[in-house]
Amino acid sequence: MGCFPLFSTVTLFVASLSLLISCSYGVNPDVLATICSQTQNQEICESILTSDPRTSSADLPTLSLISLELTMKQASDNNQSFTQFRDNTTNPSLKNDFSNCVTLYKDMQDKLNAAYLLSKQRKYKDITDLGQLTTLAYNCENGLPSDSPTAAITEDMLLTSQTAISVNAYVAT
Ligand SMILES: *[C@@H]1O[C@H](CO)[C@@H](O)[C@H](O)[C@H]1NC(C)=O
Ligand SMILES: *[C@@H]1O[C@H](CO)[C@@H](O)[C@H](O)[C@H]1NC(C)=O
After folding, report:
1. Dihedral of the CA atoms 33, 38, 43, 46 (nearest 10)?
2. Cα 168 to ligand 2 centre (Å)
């Protein structure tokens, strides 16, 4: 009879102990490596995440927010660049292509804002649209001439998106 209260006390103790450990350690380097091994370039993924000083002491919920904030920043920077390219060019065909990119980036920004809200609510399994970011970024660049000066910022968007996709897939499991 007295076994049950004892059992639950021990269980509770072990549970709170492991919670304490996982909280105080934050995201350890092994977890970061596991997350980033799922992207095109593990090293770049790790440098993207550690570019934010909060990452070294972040728990997984914070890492999710950080990864989304970094991707929102990249999307916002790229939107500004594509808007400038659209406004600067006098070539009607190019103007149309850049305009298409601006529309695609608006879509990406909307998806990121929605994901950010879900992350704040810790509804990680409901974050299902991030995978489309890479497709949208490709759609933009593929509509442009192959010598487009935007190849580098598109690559940045792809790598940052992959990082956020992998972080949030990990946090959702
Ligand atoms: C995209 O950038 C342009 C130019 O800076 C800005 O006016 C526009 O509001 C931006 N769009 C979004 C969705 O942030
Ligand atoms: C667009 O033109 C403005 C004004 O000349 C210039 O400052 C800016 O760098 C140009 N942007 C791009 C992306 O070419």
Report:
1. -60
2. 35
Pocket-testing residue among 78, 80, 103, 136, ligand 1, by greatest number of atoms within 8 A of Cβ: 80
- Asked whether 168 and 130 are in contact (CB, 8 A), the reply is yes
Question: Three-class SS of residue 26?
Answer: coil
Is 142 a member of any domain? yes
- Within a domain: 117: yes
Asked if residue 58 lies in contact with residue 72, where contact means CB atoms within 8 angstroms, the answer is no
Between CA 20 and CA 160, with CA 68 as vertex, the angle to 5 degrees is 115
CA 147 to ligand 2 centroid distance, Å = 18
Q: What is the pLDDT of residue 171?
A: 97
Question: CA-to-CA distance for 143 and 91, rounded, in angstroms?
Answer: 14
Residue 13: inside a domain, yes or no? Answer: no
54 assigned to some structural domain: yes
Q: Whole-angstrom Cα distance, residue 33 to residue 61?
A: 17
AA identity, residue 25: Y
pLDDT digits (tens, 9 = 90+) for 67-126: 999 999 999 999 999 999 999 999 999 999 999 999 999 999 999 999 999 999 999 999
Which structure tokens are listed for 158?
Answer: 């792809």
Spatial CA neighbour of 157 closest among 87, 75, 94: 75
- Around Cβ 98, how many Cβ atoms within 10 Å? 25
